[in-house]
Write a structure and sequence with these properties.
The chain contains 15 helices and no strands. By secondary structure, it is mostly helical.
């Protein structure tokens, strides 16, 4: 088991140790991409993941998960090469679409590999702790990448991109040496439909999946627009890299201890949304180089919610469709991300990023109120039953 954990942690680290990650949105802007074009590029990532999440989940439930994870890394490396060859709007769009391929075939598959391996040795109860550590290691990878980017950017974006390709190659190797998982069943057309039916039928899964996809979708918007927003607040390129270092440090710490909140009542996730809405509203109202750093606190709340909601959803999901169920959640998350990123981009194009941030705060407030009210209604029904 220790050898397996070392491999999945190494994969998570090198998957995140991508020097261009903290700067890619800034790179797009530096090459003349407008706010609306930036949102279009990000939406391309979302569109690709929406189209591929279903097939990716079914494939991961029936074919070799390790090779799926390996080839996903190769696809993203191809995207970096496209950026090197064509540093323009269409090149950036195509490269990020390939990143979307990687995301679609990784999300759900990685978690299924971890959970089923733990379950095979009777340690599935440790999933929240193991996946929390994986998230912490991922944050450490982003932190290391941000530190590396802060120094490497002085040599130009091509150096940063080639370093990212090298890291992707190492991640692909880590995936290829994962243990071989047993086949669960023959491939069948109804795989994804069965997962959708199971999610709709299983209230436990649905109750955790919906807030999870909202948290990851809206959190992804803040994560991708974060460097551009803090640049708008007055931070320089090197300061943005340091901002990403602090952001990664926050995620590392939160991920390492998030499992301690696993027994938190489900209704409290709604208060998490409301807390994030309040923080983003404050930053939007007073966007300065000082208040911009509050975005890091918001990211910490997002990460705590993500790890605990994911662990509860995994516990409620049947093994036969576990990866497909994860892909279904990721599909919903991508849909939320796509709609929100286009909205923020349109508002930024028409007015400013502050207005887009305020709209995101409003969306989080609505989500928080909905979760709190839904849990309260369910508690009343259970009490009267």
């Amino acid at each position: 088991m220790n050898a397996f954990l070392a491999k999945i942690y190494a994969l998570r680290f090198f998957d995140a140790f991508v020097l261009i990650y903290p700067l890619y949105a800034v790179m797009f802007v530096d090459h003349g991409v407008s706010p609306l074009q930036l949102s279009t590029i990000m939406t391309a990532w979302s569109a690709v993941t929406i189209m591929l999440h279903g097939p990716a989940g079914v494939a991961a439930d029936h074919w070799s998960r390790r090779w799926i994870l390996c080839l996903a890394q190769v696809a993203r490396c191809g995207g970096f090469v496209v950026w090197l060859a064509f540093p323009s709007f269409w090149g950036f769009l195509g490269g990020l679409a390939l990143w979307g391929v990687k995301s679609a075939f990784t999300t759900g598959t990685y978690e299924a590999v971890v959970y089923d391996e733990l379950r095979s040795v009777g340690r599935e109860g440790e999933y929240a702790k193991v996946i929390g550590r994986a998230h912490a290691i991922q944050a450490a990878g982003v932190l290391a990448a941000s530190l590396g980017a802060a120094g490497a950017i002085r040599f130009g974006y091509p150096v940063v991109l080639w370093a990212s390709v090298a890291s992707g190659a190492v991640a692909a190797t880590c995936a290829a040496i994962l243990p071989r998982a047993p086949k669960l069943a023959e491939v069948h057309v109804g795989g994804f439909a069965a997962a959708v039916a199971e999610a709709l039928r299983n209230r436990a899964v649905l109750g955790f999946m919906i807030p999870l996809l909202l948290a990851t979708g809206l959190g992804g918007v803040l994560q991708d627009y974060g460097p551009v927003i803090v640049q708008d607040a007055g931070l320089s390129a090197s300061q943005i890299a340091l901002y990403m270092v602090a952001l990664s440090a926050m995620k590392l710490i939160v991920s390492a201890f998030a499992h301690r909140w696993r027994k938190l009542p489900p209704g409290w996730f709604g208060y998490g949304f409301l807390a994030q809405a309040a923080l983003l509203g404050l930053v939007a109202a007073f966007l300065t180089p000082v208040t911009a750093w509050l975005l890091i606190v918001t990211a910490g709340v997002f990460k705590t919610m993500e790890i605990n909601l994911e662990a509860r959803m995994q516990d409620a999901s049947p093994s036969a469709v576990r990866a497909t169920m994860g892909s279904l959640r990721a599909l919903g998350s991508s849909a939320v991300f796509g709609g929100a990123v286009m909205g923020v981009g349109a508002l930024a194009q028409a007015a400013s990023y502050r207005l887009g941030l305020a709209a995101l705060a409003g969306a989080l407030a609505v989500c928080g109120a909905a979760v709190v009210l839904a849990r309260a209604a369910r508690s009343r029904l259970e009490a009267s039953a």
